[in-house]
Amino acid sequence: MSWRNNNIFLIAVQGGLVIRYNTFIMLGLLLSANLIMIGSYVLTMKTIPPQIPLLYSLPIGEDQLVEWWMIFIIPIIMNVFYILNSFIYNRFFFQEQFERSLLRYVNMAVVGICTYLFIRIVVLVS
Predict the structure, then answer these.
(1) What is the 8-class DSSP label of residue 56?
(2) Is 76 strand, coil or helix?
(3) Of all residues in the chain, what percent carry a pLDDT higher than 70?
(4) Which of 5, 8, 13, 73 has the smallest number of CB atoms closer than 10 Å to its CB?
(5) Residue 7 belongs to some domain of the structure
(6) Long-range contacts of 105-108 (CB under 8 A, 24+ apart)
(7) Max Cα separation, the chain?
(8) Residue 114: which residues within 8 A CB-CB, separation 6 or more?
(9) Which domain, by its residues, includes 29?
């Protein structure tokens, strides 16, 4: 097994198998965020009303209200953005260090912001 430090991530190469340790850290972050969102929903499931305010860009009132199940759009969007950014990260920017770092930080920001919004809305309405 040979180790190579690329100032962004360590790669372990053995028999053509490439393991990217940052990928495991980011997947752990995504999994943790999903578990936190599921846990916060399960803990407040009994007190969530049938309609919740989700569309804050609309005028105040009933226009902002959506059905309770639409709160799951936030984690779905988070996971789609993570998968899309990871595909771009691995497909197009394999050697470019700046772009890889930028996409990694964008992924972390998307996961953090979506988790915060989900928890904030769930706590606000329950």
Answers:
(1) T
(2) helix
(3) 82
(4) 5
(5) no
(6) 107/26, 107/81, 107/82, 108/26, 108/29
(7) 62
(8) 33, 74, 75, 77, 78
(9) 22-125
What pTM, to 2 d.p., does this model score?
A: 0.76
Strands 2-5 and 65-67: unpaired
Nearest to residue 7, comparing CAs of 27, 29, 28, 22?
Answer: 22
Question: What digits encode the pLDDT tens for the residues 26-64?
Answer: 888 999 999 999 999 999 989 989 998 888 888 888 888
Three-state DSSP class for 50?
Answer: coil
pLDDT band at 21 (very low <50, low <70, confident <90, very high): low
Domain membership of residue 11 (yes or no) is no
Q: How many domains does the chain have?
A: 1
SS3 call for 27: helix
| Structural domain contains residue 8 | no
- Tell me the C-alpha to C-alpha distance, in Å, between residue 15 and each of 10, 18, 99, 118: 16, 9, 28, 42
**Per-residue pLDDT at 2:** 46
